[in-house]
Records
---
Amino acid sequence: MHDHWRGRERYTVFDSDYGDGAAVRALFDAWRADPQRPARLHVVALADGLMPGFHRIPQDEAGLSLDLLAAPLDAALAQLSASLDAIRLHRVSAPGAAFARPLARLTALGARLMASGLDEEQRGALQQQGFVFDGDQAVFASRKPRLPLTPTPERRALVIGAGLAGSSAAWRLCARGWQVTLLERHPRPAMEASGNLAGIFMPLLSRDDNIPTRLTRAAYLYALRQWEQLGGVGRAIEGQACGVLQLARDPAHAAVSRALAAENTLPPGFARWLEPGPAEALLGLPAPDGGWLFPQGGWARPGSVCETMLAACGAGLQQRFGVGGVSLERAGEEWIARRKDGAELGRAPTVVLANGAGALQLPQAAALPISLLRGQVSHLDAGQAPALPLVLCREAYLTPAANGIVCAGATYDLDSDPQLRAASHEENLARMRALVSDPQAALDAPLLGRVGFRCVAPDRLPLVGRLPDFASAGSTERLRDVPRHPGLHALLGYASRGLIWAPLAAELLAAQLEGEPLPLEMNLVDALDPARFVLRARRSSRVPLID
């Protein structure tokens, strides 16, 4: 394999059985020892013992990436986006040869296959797809048309917005050797929705493991891994990995949760259902219907996450704060960002819009169906709220005290008032009292807190990827056929989950730009594609009106 990867920019290996990881570790060691190694080595492997889905595992070296796929072979291949240069097929336990076609779809011409334990049907199916065998090894020589490889990009980008979305984008691009100019209208990072004192991080559960649940789980697990690589919550990042207890809303909600827990599909380190007794013993407060404990959850100050990510960017990052509103114009193969007075702020072939609803001020993004939701958080003196061992939530949330302050919130208001107001404060306090079962809690709490505005899409999912050209869409019916603005990309619509959405969304976008294996299943990638709203608009326009 080593002679096969030499002289390449990137090289991707697929392994049908990660096992104990020894083979992958040996491959990584061989890459480190080879002076003629490819700049980037990607390993994608099937693995047991993980929650369902794709798992990107951060590596210490920027040139290495590892994706572990917890799915059957044929299903994993059907959802994978990658160009495979080498394949190891062994311990293929699934009967039949359904994996052969999706494997061939992903395989680059001239790729090498090493196989063991294949039966005649499986071997024959691979031969029909273009694999030419010599013993237990094969070379892929299909004559079928191949999708063109993503060319090596010119690694220069403008990132607009220095909140969680923009800071994550700068970090993941700089990690790949990009030169990034970060433009922020405020005088420092994280001054809008990312400026709250505390954001909570926790997964989402559902009986049917739907798309929002799967996406949120993938983002949550990836964020935990990436934060640990940055130094960890409670250390490099201000916050506490203290756990989150999400109380059941009522007996009916508790019954649904209990049924989900009885299926025994959730590892206890990820989520654990607590009946009222154990929940109350943990919390020290009433929990009449029980709740879900997320032991790895907690809270973090979003601004400290931004600061830590930006510090990790190194010399590849240029930061420009206080630039005010920004306009974009296309000049040849580049975008030029200008201040309102026309002064040039930077130029690059790639632009990432990570400025929330501010993106709507740009003509290229004005048609995106994103909106703002006002959120007011109340700040309480630590003595005005119960002392909590973890984050407590239901319809609202309450954090443990930090620096003498407890955060309670947040409201969901449909207006644009940036000022603190008494009605929203009282709403937060009423929900907090219901949460802790104490009608007397914080009765005289003064009006203190913060107002932020969440950027929200109609389906409450982020917008990650190339920006669609709505005006040129015509009668487009498929995502891949939607026309796009060249070099213009979105990281928008994180709603109230920006803390965990930001790292994975930025990693996904960086992988798309580089032509790397994507860290999510393709149906989840499609669920985040900003062009989904082009197709939905067309479908809605075809619905007949009924008088």
---
Amino acid sequence: MASTGKPGLDESRRSTGSLKLKGRENAKDTLCRNVTIYGKCRYEDKGCAFNHDPQKFSNAHQNDSSSKKRLNVDSPSFTPSLLAANGSTTPKKTTSISPKAASAAPFLPKSVASRSNTSTPSVRQETATPDWSVAEVQDFVPQGFDASQMVSLQGNGNGVLNPAASYDPFVATPTPLAGGTAGVASHPVQANPYSHDAAAAATLGGAAFFPGQTAYQQPAQYHLYAPIGPHSQNIMGYQRNVHDLFLPNDFREELQKKAAATLQTLPNSSLPAHVDHFHSLVPLDLTHQKNATIFGYPSWVYKAQSSKDGNYYVLRRLEGFRLTNEKAIRSVQAWKRICNASMVTVHDAFTTRVFQDSSLIFVMDYHPLSKTLAEQHLGAGNRYQNRHNAHVPEQVLWSYMTQIASALKTIHSNGLAARIIDPSKIILTGKNRIRLNACAIMDVVQHDTQRSVTDLQHQDLVNFGQLILTLGANSPNVMNNPTKAMEHFQRAYSPQLKNSVFWLLNGMQKDQERTIDIFISGISSQLISTFDSSLHLDDQLTSDLSRELENGRLVRLLTKLNFINERPEYEHDRQWSENGERYFLKLFRDYVFHQVDAQNNPVVDLGHVLTCLNKLDAGTEEKITLISRDEQSCFIVSYKELKKALESSFQALMKPTRRMH
């Protein structure tokens, strides 16, 4: 390439570092940057005062750096020598310019950071220099880089970047992931914006820019979903499915079954339509045989809904009971004040004749799909109840004992006695989760019985021991031969559990003081174990609940969209939802939910929906293409603009409501 400088110029003045004069008259001694970058200056014949002959400059560099062997003629490309701010060349690597760069536009950077006294930082070159083929239409004006805003190269803890992450190098805020399935600790690589394929360059390690490890890191964003532990081990960030975004299937199925049981009705029923302020009675008894063994009266259990608060309760009916003393039913008031997680709360008691007899009704909390311990472990209600009863693990028995002990401590502390601790009257409401039931009934039925509260509390301890012995022996009739039962219990369980049960069975002895507080002190080590299990369950439930946290946010977003999209009329304008920014929201709805594939089949992709809605809620700068249904209009808008349109349109709908109030 011929030089355009003046003839007779002293060639020695072109050597590196020899230029010290400044001014436009000395610009001819400085190599034009457009020649260095693009191989040609478009303004060479239009008055550019800089030198356009790179051959003489390269010869000068060869003479100065021949001892360092910086050039390799066999290499296809080299790193170009970069110019310092004062016009002198620095001893950097040189490169050959691709012939395709001859038609490139002049380099016009927005940032002036490279014009400081320090030299321009060199680009990390691991592969061949990519060809530059910038179109002649307009000058390439890249975004300026600020080193304080670069994110460091981080992975997901295993040295692998999350491939599910979506990142725009020209957006300062990382875009949210689908459903927030990955945490914000993994930041994508800051790609080189001068490369034509920044994503490929960052992935392949080509012309990518790698900032320092001490660079600024993006803070955690509120709109990104951060899973709460416990976490699955040995799993990558992208190894997730749709089920990871919602409650576990078994837990969801359990809740749905309980909801269905709560809403169950009995249309063709001979039961009364109303019992006081309760209606929609459904029997809960598995057997239809009268049994007066426990209470002295036949009892029936119903589920009913209250017309006062709409909640569901259990009505336990004692058939044929006649109230002779008003003080008997007033004893329920003391039980209404007791609140313990290991007992069923008593709400009220009253008498009624709607069942064509004199009946006593107790109102208690309703726990759907609960089973009694007799049904769970003793085979009650089964045809072969004495066969193949599963052995109850010792840790399960300790869990039962700690929960019953907690309930008895609360009951005894209030000057009352449970009086009924029977496998058929203790319900199992969850995994190893039990509650004492029907505690207040005996205080009403046997109100005239003259027994001290202390004797009744001691009897509670004996009944407690008999319950654990019955469950451990897997037989409802084990107390007919207690000696044989204790021998079996001693062989199956640890000495600590055997001694605890033996201490309870001797609760009526007067040789030493026996209270529930002393018993709790004796099993304190097992209380810690049960409490630890309860904390683990709490952590698991919190983790499951956190999965549903994002659903409420997206539901609110969908609600706003549906309030706006295709509204028939607003402010006497039938085209309100089809004009202006509302039209963009309509096209966005089609973009999210109405996409089709190459065969014109509907695209049902939950990940796409969650990704779009999360980005809309975050208001990112990412732009998408919205096409009308007739394919005659095409719009390129960002999520930030869509979010602004959504908020302004929704506020427009709220204005008439505010005026009315």
